[in-house]
Amino acid sequence: MTAIQVRGLQKRYGDHQAVAGIDLDVAQGEIFALLGPNGAGKTTTVEILEGHRRRDGGEVRVLGEDPGTAGQAWRARLGMVLQTATDAAELTVTETVRHFARYYPRPRNVDDVIDLCGLREKAKARVKSLSGGQRRRLDVALGIIGTPELVFLDEPTTGFDPEARRQFWGLIEKLAADGTTILLTTHYLDEAEALAGRVAVLAAGRIVAEGTPKSIGGRAMAEATVRWTDERGPQEMKTSTPTRLVNELSAGGRELAGLTVTRPSLEDIYLDLVGGSR
Ligand SMILES: Nc1ncnc2c1ncn2[C@@H]1O[C@H](COP(=O)(O)OP(=O)(O)OP(=O)(O)O)[C@@H](O)[C@H]1O
Q: In the record, which residues are listed under signal peptide (predicted)?
């Protein structure tokens, strides 16, 4: 079943076209990433899907309903990770999660969620004493306490140190393993590559590429560059059949000094895709 279906979505702020006609399909159980630079229209898109912002044009279905008109029962099936959710800073982590659990008809077990989000050691700590990364994990705890079918994560790891990001990715993978659909926005390529089954690259309100991280921008098909050094010095050849080339070069068991085979990185392709639109 399709969790999210978007056709021709448009949003304009004054005379600025923030979202310029995008199509999206996210299947149930998928981790889907909207990847794009600052100002590409990611947050606007997610807020429309959450029902927090009105669209100017296009069709949107989220869990089968139009977010513009869907009611409370629909909302309870979504997990929205809002940075403002943890304002009750005088409460402890457990108290905060327990408090939010009361809003939902089918909440997860409070202790399970605290464990899942890696907050066991901080369960009795006041929210105001948490680090930025721990607070973000608490935001996620509050986003998933209601057993949502679909979770929206808007730039979840911005400002995290590398270890906190790894831990957070692990949490997202655990959620997805339970069958939760996840739509995340990010401007980190490695995050999209590590987590998402499919990625849409957004630039200036349009989707400029979509597919698996490996296939984005035709990367899987791109020519490889084979480099090696021989008696003439450093050599370089571009080829669509690098295995054959290396076989030919090394015929008779000849060792090739400094041999490397590279394809354009996701970063090369991405910068190419979004470069013209900034
Ligand atoms: N409420 C608003 N009023 C006017 N312009 C807005 C409003 N919200 C967003 N914009 C503009 O619309 C464009 C898209 O913004 P949006 O926040 O959706 O981008 P984004 O991809 O999420 O960027 P970031 O990575 O910086 O969060 C930007 O040019 C932004 O300045």
A: none
Taking the alpha carbons at both ends of the chain, their separation in whole angstroms is 35
Q: pLDDT per residue over 147-202, tens digit each?
A: 999 999 988 887 778 888 888 898 899 889 988 999 999 888 889 989 999 999 99
ipTM above 0.90, yes or no: yes
Q: For 2-216, CATH number? A: 3.40.50.300
Break the chain into its structural domains and give their ranges. 2-216, 218-275
* Cβ(210)–Cβ(252) below 8 Å: no
* CA-closest residue to ligand 1 atom 31: 39
- Cβ of 205 closer than 6 Å to ligand 1, yes or no, is no
188 lines ligand 1 (CB under 6 A): no
Question: What residues have CB less than 8 Å from 250, skipping those under 6 apart?
Answer: 256
- Cα separations in angstroms, 180 against 4, 128, 148: 13, 29, 7
Q: What angle do CA 204, 206, 207 make, to 5 degrees?
A: 125
User: Residue 245: is it exposed, middle or buried by C-beta count within 10 angstroms (0-12/13-18/19+)?
Assistant: middle
